[in-house]
Amino acid sequence: MNLRDLEIFFAVADELHFGRAAMVLRIKQSSVSESIVRLETALGAPLFYRTTRRVSITDFGGRVLANLRPAYAALHQEYAKAVADGHHRGELRLGHTPELGQALLPGLVRLTAHAGPGAPPSWRPLAMHTHEQIAALQSGAIDVGLCWEPSVNDQITQVVLATAPLVAILRDDDSLAEPRSPISLRELAGRPLIVSPRTDNQMAFARIERAFIGAGIDMGSVSEVSHYDAVSLHVARGYGIGVHPAPAVGLNRVPGLAFRRVADEGVGISVCAIVLTATATREVSQMLGALRAVTTEVINAI
Q1: 72 contacts: CB under 8 Å, gap ≥ 6
Q2: Which end is more exposed in the chain, N or C (fewer Cβ atoms within 10 Å of the end residue's Cβ)?
Q3: Mean pLDDT computed over every residue of the chain
């Protein structure tokens, strides 16, 4: 039995689309197809019906999913407990995206130093992207993750710490840079826009994409670059207007930029903590409380 083949089977069953499953797993679509064929050969029956237009699960595939997924989840949870028991050093291991680490962890350091009510337990930071945090939680390599809103399964609990509004990032000499009051996305339609890539966080990107389309923005005018620093540099060099979650304001190191909060309702991106559902502890609860306090403080200050 190949556990990776099971993970791919679960992803296809969730997405009912081989291409989307490949994106979620960050592997080639051909690898997804090969894995499903391998699993079907081992089990002796098809798991999915495939046509050129759609994928649907077979009755046999549905039974396999219902029987194996709980057992697979339990295996991961017990393995995570064993890893935590064997390697834990009396401090929480906090996975965080690089950008949220820069924006939020200095506040967590200050809160830890005070050692009073609301202070978190001892912790160690580990920079990693959202999909890496999910894998690290399941393997027991971290205790808590800090990320933009993720797509998680029932093994992981997602806790929304706060919702960060979006900001438009403009050159100081852009005609839209003044006034510094909130701006609507419709005012950006027809201009080249720059965002962080879909691959960093598909859930967050999808939310921004829906907001853009709803505001009449042609997605063909939207470029993706690797991270906030790259977004701000592209804006400074005149390649377009950046759209990014608001904590970017506190991270900016590029001169000559202006920031305007996006006024549209419902387009904020949630800052979340993620924990393995089966291993929540008092220390984890304390960390979640501290992260919520720090996140709220940073976003309210923008």
Answers
A1: 3, 6, 7, 10
A2: N
A3: 88
Q: Are 215 and 188 in contact (CB under 8 A)?
A: yes
Same fold, 3-84 and 92-157+271-300: no
What is the model's pLDDT at position 121?
Answer: 87
Mention every residue, 6+ apart, whose C-beta is less than 8 A from residue 141: 83, 93, 95, 126
pTM of the model: 0.69
Superfamily in which the 166-267 domain is placed by CATH = Periplasmic binding protein-like II (3.40.190.10)
Reduce the DSSP state of residue 239 to 3 states and report it: coil
DSSP letters of 116-160? Answer: STTPPPPEEEEE--HHHHHHHHHHTS-SEEEEESP---TTEEEEE
Domain chopping of the chain, boundaries = 3-84, 92-157+271-300, 166-267
Q: What is the CATH number of domain 3-84?
A: 1.10.10.10
CA–CA separation, 145 and 124 (whole Å): 12
| CATH class in words for 92-157+271-300 | alpha beta
Rounded to 5 degrees, what are φ and ψ at 116? -105, -165
Q: Which of 11-15, 115-119, 174-178, 289-293 comes out lowest in average pLDDT?
A: 115-119
Section 227-239 average pLDDT: 92
234/243 Cα distance (integer angstroms): 12
Give the per-residue SS3 of 5-59: HHHHHHHHHHHCCHHHHHHHHCCCHHHHHHHHHHHHHHHCCCCEEECCCCEEECH
Q: Looking at the predicted structure, is the pLDDT value of residue 88 above 60?
A: no
Q: Mind listing the pLDDT tens digit for each residue in 27-74?
A: 889 999 999 999 999 899 999 999 888 999 999 999 999 999 888 887
Q: With 80 as the cut, is the pLDDT of residue 120 above it?
A: yes
